[in-house]
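Worked example 4.2. Below are the chains of a multi-component assembly; read each line carefully before continuing.
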Amino acid sequence: KAGVTQTPRYLIKTRGQQVTLSCSPISGHRSVSWYQQTPGQGLQFLFEYFSETQRNKGNFPGRFSGRQFSNSRSEMNVSTLELGDSALYLCASSGLAGGMIADTQYFGPGTRLTVL
Amino acid sequence: DAKTTQPPSMDCAEGRAANLPCNHSTISGNEYVYWYRQIHSQGPQYIIHGLKNNETNEMASLIITEDRKSSTLILPHATLRDTAVYYCIVSDYKLSFGAGTTVTVRA
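Applying the procedure described above to all two chains together yields the following structure tokens:
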């Protein structure tokens, strides 16, 4: 079974631009979560989607948004990029419904975003 | 905020068992203990999880104390490829990663 895939793997943007990252979950998984990892803050939860609905949300500004499609693929968008948005963005999928007891999450390789 | 406490780092000799401790004194009754690891610049990798009983799989063993306030991850025969940051997580709807333990396996 193929793992979680994320595209692109690397991205360079400038301040003020916006960016869209894509995540394809493991086949059959319906829950997709997004995380941001920076050296200073570590791994932080952004949001989680299940059946095209955002079920849970972390403590990030509204510039960070996401969506999920009917095939469970998910995208996250960051608008008006800031230097501090430079990070590794990780997507994880799981087989159980989000918002319930946590299920094992399987992570993709991440997208490395650099904001100049 | 992370609900767990782990030592920041530890070394292990190749071929020996690595015992990674984790304190989670505020764990609630329906929360699981999960362990993940992250090798440099890769996505975290699931290792094992448990609720009350000890668990074992092909990667590791998880020992949870009877009061569930602490646990130990055991890598039975550490190899150089086990060098990584290991995260102990008490789960609810999201995984709250702390700083983890940086494990260095030395030849």
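Take a moment to check your reading of the output against the notes. DSSP finds no helices and nine strands in chain B. Chain B touches chain A at residues 30, 32, 34, 41-46, 49, 87, 91-99 (CB under 8 Å).
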